[in-house]
Amino acid sequence: MNDTPSSPPGDRIAKVLSRAGVASRREAERMIALGRVSVNGTRIDSPALNVTAADRIAVDGRPVAAPEPPRLWLYHKPPGLVTTTRDEQNRATIFDDLPADLPRVMSVGRLDLNSEGLLLLTNDGGIKRRLELPATGWLRRYRVRINGRPQDSDFDPLRKGLVVGRDKFMPMIVTLDRQQGANAWLTMGLREGKNREIRRAMEDIGLTVNRLIRVSYGPFQLGTLKPGATEEIRPRVLRDQLGLETPDDEPAPAKRPQRARRAKPGPDAAPRHTPKGASVPPAKSRPRPGKKTR
Question: What backbone phi and psi angles, to 5 degrees, belong to 235?
Answer without folding.
Answer: -55, -40
